[in-house]
Amino acid sequence: MLSQSTLSPAERRFLEDGVRQGFRNDGRGLLDYRPYTVETGILPSTSGSSRVRSFGTDVLCAVKVDMGSPPADKPDEGVVSVNVECSASVAPHGELEGGSSSRATGRVGGGRRDDSGEGWSAYLGALLDDLCLPPCALDKKALCVSPHVYAWHVNVDILLLNAAGGVLDAMSLAMRSALRDTTLPSVSVGSRDEWEEEDTADGVQQSKPPFDVDERPTAGTPFPAQDIPVCVTVGQVCSHYVWDMSSEEESCAEAQVTVAVDRNGRCVAVHKSGMASIDPTGLLQVLKDAGRVGVELIKKLEAAMAKLGTGQPVVRERLGFMAA
Amino acid sequence: MNVSILTPSGPSPLDSSGGISSQQQLVMPGQVIPTHSGYMRGHGTTEENGQLIATVCGLVEQVSALIYVRPLRSRYVGEVGDVIVGRVDEIGNGRWYVEVCSSQRAQLHLAAINLPGSVQRRRTEEDEKEMRRFLAEGDILSTEVQRVQSDGLILLHTRSAKYGKLENGCLVQVPPQLVRRQASHMVNLPCEPPVGVVLGNNGYIWVGLPQRESARDTINYALGEVTYQAVSPPQRQAICRVRNCIAALSAHYLQLTPQSIMDVYSASVRGKLEVSSLTNPEVVRDLIREYIKTKT
Amino acid sequence: MDAATYRPLPPDVPPAPTVSFGAAERSDGRTNEDVRDIEMQTGPISSAVGSAFFQIGKTKALSAVYGPRQSMRQARTSSSGAVNIDLKFAPFAVPSRTSMAERERYLVGMLSEAFESIILVERYAKSVIDITCIVLEDDGGVLSACFNAISLAAAHAGLEMTDIVTATSLYCMEVPSDTSQNVVYLSDLTAAEEACWLSSGQCTEMHVGIATSGSSICFLHGTGSLLNPTCAEQLLGRAEEICRAIGKEMRACLKAAYAASQNAAPAKTTATE
């Protein structure tokens, strides 16, 4: 596919004039979002999963929970780690790579990923973790099973199948829906006198209590995901703020601001990218609008998930793994 | 502010009805194509043990003695006389390298364009240095396929009034199979106000202000004449509505002709649909359903 | 992370793998020769030229084809095209989060060799075809699942190929019985079965890719002590049956996809002036 980030001056002028008139190339107003299609529970072998699509951008998210030890410096908390991987067709700036010299032609030893692609994925994962899972949004203490002994390790894996603008927004929606789809199993940890002695590699004796997991989905508790925010990204095009940009609009945006908003409209994180600087008054307006947009998005997301039966242990009729 | 989240709703309305028409034969790779003697082998086929075997999934087509298989999905394969909309990727060696959604970039040689001032002369070194003045990297242009080499390389030319740089509009990309050869690829659609459309056989479609009718002689057209024009709000609405209608037809894999685009456009106007609502897949599905009903 | 690792399992954890003669059941109720249920779909990734989803049992593979498109490197080095396969395991595809890089590289090597012979690369001069494949879940039979996913995606993308090629994995091993050693032939192992038998070294495996219109073998990789003519004949015979059955399903799937799109087009008209 043609690299969408190279626009001719003619297309750029047409797009920018449209923004000035408040009428974008697909007829949307500056604050209008393209519809997202959301599915949950598509990977039965995971604790929770979701797929979010919007006009080309395609994100798959899977959550797996493992029992492990709490971190040494925070013995009463669990651990959540976010990992982003991009399909090989998605290069750092959302264009498709063609014949890149860093890739061998698929012979033995080939199939290496482009280094900058991996760097970008790692950065996105860290950014998403920072913006959407700050302490005020996720109480990691709820993930602790037994302080100093056992805590849940939650791995959130995000696969970016295709990028066509609004990648962070789609990823945050996918992460929130997958976490809402996740149930933490009920665990009972043995009492003090039941602890077994174990020999570890360096001969030091360590005791670990046994634990019992109740496999039944109905016995578990839902993952505490209600306060997790979603990201809304706005771009600055010719001094106007444009929401939910397509990839053409992204290539015309001088700067972008991503705001993480929770279900009450509270802004919990903000991040600016892009080369131009932003005027502070404009930024304040963005924060206000972001609050409204975020509340709407989460409300509609919750409605869609209720319709899908997200997080409920019953077997739902699915329209095939990859419904159209 | 408009925000919506949908859940998947199953197959599109076009999946249920019957099979392929009996005149068209769907073949798969490895399948033998029945032939008569004296045929010529075309694209999408190979010969083995005296039999003609298909190498792509597609429909068998026959044009006099030439038998070929037209794949229902693929990148663009060039044919002489096709109208193409492309984007300049690189400039060098006295030619423009044009991205046309094919397996190789197409080439437009300096000798294959008209020079400004309607001069007919040999191209000089000055012209080569000035190539960027005519068409720079990233520019979009409409051209025609002059020749296709045996290795698939497409050579383009713009020696006609109607071809050249495209301005005052936007580009839509669709699968190349949806734009067949037709009477006219550069049309002004009779919308209110009129919208100009250039349907590239390679799947790139330009939607913008109507093309000016050049009063001058066809040979005297020069590339540098297209200029920027301000687009008024009603014009912009019409252009964006056409763009969304084309995307709607493409999403449901329907052929793109000036007629089909106008029909969907009229249906959307009759249904009083907002231009932005055409970004909603459910609205589009209903619109296409209605369009198909009017066709049958 | 230390201590016990908990992985949520469906309520019915399958018992340890078993095998015996005749029609006796394996742990999931199949006979030795049965292949797990297959599901396939074209077009899950609409932004690619062609794409396919292939599922056998719980193993899931998703493949997409991009291109052919210009490759400067190809233009310089050779006159034919190239196929570039990128395969990865999703981090949630296997229970433990170990690096699969080595396994990915090995699979890519084998699949590339196979598909460069199946796809008519000489017709895509100076271009490269990028194929991605993601393993969403690994429950055994990953090589053949990826092979089938890529084959279906390539057909969906309209790439020129010699045939519709499908693959399957077959195994055989000697099992002591009352009188002597007998050879048992197995089709399509699950991950639990693979872990139990393949690592012990007793099991001979053979992965076969067959062009389903003829019967020629496009892909073959086998290891083990039982690759003598008798066993090989049995294995290849069974492979052909299974591959043809999968090929038939693939053709039906492609036909359904094309019928849907073709229905919507107006009646065929001759080329206009």
Automatic annotation (TrEMBL), chain A:
GO cellular component entries: cytoplasmic exosome (RNase complex); nuclear exosome (RNase complex); nucleolus
Region named Disordered: 93-115, 186-222
Xref: Pfam families: RNase_PH (PF01138), RNase_PH_C (PF03725)
Domain of life: Eukaryota
InterPro entries assigned to the protein according to its UniProt record, in alphabetical order: ExoRNase_PH_dom1, ExoRNase_PH_dom2, ExoRNase_PH_dom2_sf, Exosome_comp_Rrp42_subfam, PNPase/RNase_PH_dom_sf, Ribosomal_Su5_D2-typ_SF
Protein name: Ribosomal RNA-processing protein 42
SUPFAM superfamilies with a match to the protein in the record: Ribonuclease PH domain 2-like, Ribosomal protein S5 domain 2-like
Gene3D superfamilies according to UniProt: GHMP Kinase, N-terminal domain
Species whose genome carries this gene: Vitrella brassicaformis (strain CCMP3155)
Main location: cytoplasm
Record's subcellular location: Cytoplasm; Nucleus, Nucleolus
From TrEMBL, chain B:
Chief place of localization: nucleus
Region called Disordered, residue ranges: 1-22
Signal sequence residues: none
Gene3D superfamilies per UniProt: 2.40.50.100, Nucleic acid-binding proteins
A Pfam family matched in the record: KH_6
Exosome complex component N-terminal domain: residues covered: 26-63
UniProt name for this protein: Uncharacterized protein
Organism per entry: Vitrella brassicaformis (strain CCMP3155)
Similarity comment: Belongs to the RRP4 family.
InterPro entries according to UniProt: Exosome_cplx_N_dom, Exosome_RNA_bind1/RRP40/RRP4, KH_dom_type_1, KH_dom_type_1_sf, NA-bd_OB-fold, S1_RRP4
Molecular function terms from GO: RNA binding
One cellular component term from this protein's GO annotations in UniProt: nuclear exosome (RNase complex)
Alphabetical keyword list: Exosome, Nucleus, RNA-binding, rRNA processing
Domain K Homology: 169-209
Domain RRP4 S1: 75-147
One BP term from GO: exonucleolytic trimming to generate mature 3'-end of 5.8S rRNA from tricistronic rRNA transcript (SSU-rRNA, 5.8S rRNA, LSU-rRNA)
Subcellular localization, as worded in the UniProt entry: Nucleus
Composition skew (Low complexity), residue ranges: 8-22
From TrEMBL, chain C:
One of the GO BP terms on file: nuclear mRNA surveillance
Any GO molecular function: RNA binding
Boundaries of every Exoribonuclease phosphorolytic domain copy: 35-159
Record-linked InterPro entries: ExoRNase_PH_dom1, ExoRNase_PH_dom2_sf, PNPase/RNase_PH_dom_sf, Ribosomal_Su5_D2-typ_SF, RNase_PH
Residue ranges, compositional bias (Pro residues): 8-17
SUPFAM superfamilies in the cross-refs: Ribonuclease PH domain 2-like, Ribosomal protein S5 domain 2-like
UniProt superkingdom: Eukaryota
Region Disordered, residue ranges: 1-32
Pfam families attached to this UniProt entry: RNase_PH
GO (cellular component) term, any one: cytoplasmic exosome (RNase complex)
Sequence similarity: Belongs to the RNase PH family.
Protein name: Exoribonuclease phosphorolytic domain-containing protein
Species whose genome carries this gene: Vitrella brassicaformis (strain CCMP3155)
